[in-house]
Amino acid sequence: MNMSVFNGKVAIVTGAGSGIGKGLAGELARRGANVVISDINAGRIEQVAQGIARDGGKVTSSVVDVSNYDAVKNMVNDAVDAHARIDYIFNNAGIAVAGPAKDFTIDDWRNVIDIDFYGVVHGVAVAYPIMVKQGFGHIINTASIAGLAPLPGIASYVAGKYGVVGLSNALRIEGAGHGVKVSVVCPGYIKTAIFTDSKIINIDVGKRAQMPDWGGLTPDECAKRILRGVERNKAFIILTGFAQYLSLLNRISPDLVIWIMRRGYGNALKKGMIQM
Ligand SMILES: NC(=O)c1ccc[n+]([C@@H]2O[C@H](COP(=O)([O-])OP(=O)(O)OC[C@H]3O[C@@H](n4cnc5c(N)ncnc54)[C@H](O)[C@@H]3O)[C@@H](O)[C@H]2O)c1
């Protein structure tokens, strides 16, 4: 017998065509959930859906740009029409732009905030009132360690992710009175396509310090740990030991973390990894 809390539940996952979202979709389906998955990339989401269905999972998929409120609204309403409930929504889709903030165009700010912040807002704006009406549900928003500590070189991403953390914490307090749970996921380094797909501005990729292989998690391991946090209804699901350490340090001494980051960023400038 499948004793998973996700068995028979309805779980929406955005950005499920790759990486963490793909890992979550597969793991939820293996645990017996009806997964409703979407991504902006039609080819990727179709492949993920086919893989889940081939393995015997219950899945429906669609192409959704989370920065488009109407598209998110239609996706969530279609899920409610099909299943008469939603138990989980994983607002996971995200992008990054890396480079010195002085070289960002307005679109390098806007695109990241439209997807990473407003993508989450749209999922919340549609799903939360439905969950309040139901009297149950769990919203899981993906932020980042960059939503808990100020990482230089990805300023628009940091802005969007700090917003996701604040929104999630405030909503958790309000939702509790309605039976709605809210968690925020703050991963450190997860080995996904975001590092190769992201726009990079004035960073010498050849000189850039490589992410240490040992420091990161695979998307599948990350998905399992996220679901463990969801089962325990954690307010913060912070993944990788390094991310937990950095968030703790930033709570103890934000000034010390800014000093450490300034040194690291200064060294990167001196070595020519980042153009002055
Ligand atoms: N990989 C990491 O180290 C890491 C760390 C912290 C946080 N995160 C966050 O985890 C989430 C998932 O990222 P990932 O690492 O799996 O990246 P990924 O690139 O592997 O997957 C992201 C998916 O989101 C989709 N997407 C992009 N824009 C979209 C849009 N407008 N609408 C719908 N889908 C869209 C992409 O097509 C892709 O399939 C993101 O929010 C990211 O910021 C990742």
The helix count comes to 9
Helix-strand string? EHEHEHEEHEHEHEHEHH
* CATH class category: Alpha Beta
The percent range for strand residues is: 15-25%
Q: What's the CATH H-level homologous superfamily?
A: NAD(P)-binding Rossmann-like Domain
Taken from the alpha-carbon principal axes, the silhouette is: globular
Helical coverage, percent range: 40-55%
* Residue-averaged pLDDT: 95
| Ends apart, CA distance between termini | 60 Å
Give every kind of bound small molecule, once each.
Answer: nicotinamide-adenine-dinucleotide
Strand order of the biggest β-sheet: 3-2-1-4-6-7-9
Total separate domains: 1
Largest sheet: 7 strands, parallel
Gyration radius, rounded: 19 Å
Structural class: alpha/beta
Describe the structure using short key phrases:
seven-stranded parallel sheet; 276 residues; binds nicotinamide-adenine-dinucleotide; Rossmann fold; alpha/beta; two-stranded parallel sheet
